[in-house]
Amino acid sequence: MNKYTFFTAATAATVTVASFTAPASADYDYEFPFTDVGERYAEAVEFLYIIDAINGVSETKFGTQQTLTRGDAAVILAYVLDLDTENAPDAGFKDLNNRVKGSVNALVDYGVVSGVTKTQFKPGEPLSRGAMAKFLVTGFELEEYAEETPFTDAGGVFQPYIEALYGTGITSGKTATSYGTNQNITRGEFANLLYATFMFGSYATTITGAQVTSATSTSISLEEEVPEEYSARDVAAQLYFSIVYSDQTQTDFEPTSYSLSPDRKTLTINHKNEDLTGKKGIMEVDDFEKVIEAPFDFTATATTSGASIADSFEQPAGVPATKAVQ
Whose CB has fewer CB within 10 Å in the chain, the N or C terminal residue? Predict the structure, then answer.
């Protein structure tokens, strides 16, 4: 697992980090129930809430200005890194309750955290900003981005991690010359920094067209070549697939398999679980910024020689076979 691939498994079923952008309008109704989250933290809190990475301190309070405990930070980070919290070896800490034990063990096994002593993790103590830097940098493998900082308080064991966060641009410090290494981090600050770390180095799938090529296969054109570190599954996980049939019924589905073309600019999905034989309608592919519509018609026993599946679908005059809905 690395910083390019950790996210997909954890959140593919809900939302894609690369394409998530909360509207800037002050009238936007954020999708969380918390009344104590201002605009400074709202986008980060909404994202983490949507992917089930965080809860509030109560049903209506996130506890934005409250300090974050080491245990809570471990639970959140282990979740978003999609670590195996059930089967991780015991790290040897004697002060862990059942809520945090699996997460702490998994993070220790992954090399992200260590205890305050060999037998104590101290999950109820506040997390310092210095320790937070270590959590994020080691968890997301950002060590290579370290740069000298202007912070006069960025020495000691946390210095390389603070330098890495600074080098990525994820943090600019509490002031121009202070990082606040020994200060406790608040829940709101942690949400912002974790969200910023998510966004750093992320890859966004942008689609430009789609065509249903058979009753069980659809090809999707991509705006850019997919980087080598991403698989076809990673790309498909950033897309949402649905079908609107000619009788106006609609179904959502997950492809059964995926593949990329040699030039890595076309994604082919197979959907044997949603066989279109004998059916007519529109395939919709959503990259969370726009929806591409690809009509199909498999009701006829045969199509005109040389005609594409898209051409066999009745289109109003002047409407292309593949259409983007903004």
Answer: C
Look at the chain and count its residues: 326
Distance, CA of 182 to CA of 194 (rounded, Å): 18
Distance CA 158, CA 166 (A): 12
CA distances (Å), 109 to each of 73, 105, 130, in order? 16, 6, 21
Q: Which residues, listed in sequence order, are joined to residue 267 by a DSSP beta bridge?
A: 220, 260
Rounded Cα distance, 115 and 118, in Å: 6
Q: What are the tens digits of pLDDT across the range 193-205? A: 999 998 886 677 8
**54: burial class by Cβ within 10 Å (0-12, 13-18, 19+)?**
buried
Given a contact cutoff of 8 angstroms between Cβ atoms, the answer to whether 282 and 170 are in contact is no
Q: Where are the domains of the chain?
A: 6-199, 207-325
pLDDT tens per residue across span 132-159: 999 999 999 999 999 999 999 998 999 9
Reduce the DSSP state of residue 312 to 3 states and report it: helix
Judged on CB neighbours under 10 Å (0-12, 13-18, 19+), 267 is: buried
CATH architecture of 207-325: Sandwich (2.60)
Q: What are phi and psi of 54, to 5 degrees?
A: -135, 155
Residue 106 half-sphere exposure toward CB, CA atoms < 13 A: 22
- What is the value of pTM for the model shown? 0.64
pLDDT per position as a tens digit, 232-288: 988 998 899 999 999 999 999 999 999 999 999 999 999 999 999 999 999 999 987
Pairing of strands 207-214, 291-297: unpaired
